[in-house]
Specification:
The complex is a heterodimer of chains A (285) and B (156).
Chain A: H1 2-19, E1 23-27, E2 30-33, H2 37-42, E3 48-49, H3 50-72, H4 81-100, H5 108-124, H6 134-146, H7 161-193, H8 202-241, H9 246-280
Antiparallel strand pairs in A: 1-2, 1-3
Chain B: H1 6-136, H2 142-155
Helix pairs in contact in B: 1-2
Classes of the chains: A mainly alpha (285), B mainly alpha (156).
């Protein structure tokens, strides 16, 4: 019995450990890393998840630098394999934008390229074996540099709701900005108040339209987070409970996950296009 | 799994990345794709133009060939005419030459005849004198009968 409960505790510890972030913030009047999830929670808002934020910045900056380097060295007549790949990505995004976005906005193309490829890369981190960068990479390093015992280290930024909501709220702010810019403040508020049932039903309209508007960033961010979090969690369960049998199980789940990774990046990009297209739509009465 | 400043950090990162992407990445690709599109369009246009040029050249070459053939035929025609003319001229010349030879020959024959007549006359007069001497049995004084003999000879 005792051994069983100990084993259960280890599985639980393992999963909790892998679901925690390396959080840097203020504890007991000094700045430092949280040692436990409870400490991280006590830090409140002014703390930062160094692991996911770091990977997010690294992947975003890395891919933009790489794309720019490819573009600068690009050849018109004889593009190489790397250039072909990057151009295919850009053309794919551009085609989706011109299909779904009916207005002229120089920012939509780069925004969609950024979102699609950045999220794709962040999701792809999920395919890195869960313990490779944490147990064998970051933990010994953090232990030797910061004397952190058993520090958590998350490598998939999109399993952090801060990251996904950060992106979806930025998109939401753009939706509001372009709505007001294109329809005027009155037009924007009018859409919330006078639709779908006309001005005599204003309270009812607001009850429908305001949650619809607010649901956009929430669903956008949480969809991505939920998919990747679930994927990560299943990898963790497989890793912690199946012993050697985890290898084929990991493979099978990774193959399924290979579909989820680009799909979620694509969905995030497409919904962004659709939302921003709606923000440019001026209703004609 | 609590919301903290990572949320703000990601928003700032995204805003910065968006600025960078829209200024230093996206326009480069737009330019590359645009340039390639233009290049391909130019190439296709050039190909179409070349095809048209080829057609025109073919028509032109056919025309020139026809013209050359016509010219050659004209030259051959002219040459034939000239050849016939030369043959005619040669025939004419030959005929004239022949005529002249005949005239010359006739003249010579007449001369020969006259000469033969002269010789014959001389011989006849000699024979006549000899005959007369025989008849007269004496010699006839040549000088005395000279006049009569000459008269006889001219009558022959």
């Amino acid at each position: 019995m005792a051994a069983e409960s100990a084993a259960e505790l280890t599985v639980q510890d393992y999963i909790t450990h892998h679901l925690s972030f390396l959080t840097f913030g203020r504890i007991d009047d000094h700045w430092g890393f949280a040692h436990t999830p409870e400490e991280a929670a006590e830090m409140g808002f002014w703390a930062i998840n160094v692991d996911t934020m770091g990977w997010s910045l690294f992947l975003g900056a890395g891919f933009l630098w790489f794309f720019r380097r490819v573009a600068v060295n690009a050849s018109i007549d004889s593009p190489g394999g790397v250039q072909n790949f990057v151009e295919a990505v850009v053309e794919f995004v551009d085609a989706r934008v011109s299909e779904a976005f009916d207005y002229k906005n120089e920012l939509i193309g780069p925004l969609c390229l950024l979102l699609f490829f950045w999220i794709l890369l962040m999701n792809t981190m999920d395919l890195v074996p869960v313990d490779l960068l944490t147990t064998f990479g970051a933990e010994p390093l953090l232990h030797s540099v910061f004397h952190l015992e058993n520090a958590p280290f998350k490598v998939v930024p999109t399993t952090d709701p801060n990251i996904t909501m950060g992106m979806s709220v930025t998109v939401f702010l753009m939706i509001i900005y372009y709505s007001i810019k294109n329809k005027g403040l009155g037009g924007f508020l009018g859409e919330l108040a006078f639709h779908p049932f006309g001005k005599w039903m204003m309270p009812f309209n607001l009850i429908i339209e305001v949650p619809t508007l607010l649901a956009k960033p929430v669903s956008l961010g949480l969809r991505l987070f939920g998919n990747l979090y679930a994927g990560e969690l299943l990898f963790l369960l497989i890793a912690s409970m199946l012993g050697l049998w985890q290898l084929p199980a990991h493979f099978v789940w990774a193959v399924f996950h290979l579909l989820v990774i680009p799909l979620q990046a694509f969905v995030f990009m497409m919904l962004t296009i659709v939302y921003l297209n709606a923000a440019h739509e001026v209703p004609h009465h | 799994m609590n919301i903290n400043a990572t949320f703000l950090g990601q928003m700032i990162a995204m805003a910065f990345f968006l600025w960078f992407c829209s200024k230093y990445v996206w326009p480069l690709f737009v330019a590359i794709l645009e340039e390639r599109k233009k290049k391909i369009a130019d190439g296709l246009e050039a190909a179409a133009r070349a095809e048209k040029d080829l057609e025109i050249a073919q028509v032109k070459s056919n025309e020139q060939l026809k013209e050359a053939k016509a010219e050659a035929a004209a030259i051959i025609d002219q040459a034939n005419k000239r050849a016939a003319q030369i043959v005619d001229e040669a025939k004419e010349q030959a005929r004239e030459e022949g005529q002249r030879i005949i005239v010359g020959a006739n003249a010579e024959i007449e001369q020969e005849v006259n000469r033969a007549k002269e010789a014959l006359r001389a011989q006849v007069s000699a024979i006549a004198i000899a005959g007369a001497e025989k008849i007269l049995e004496g010699s006839v004084d040549q000088a005395a009968n000279e006049e009569m003999l000459n008269k006889l000879a001219s009558e022959l």
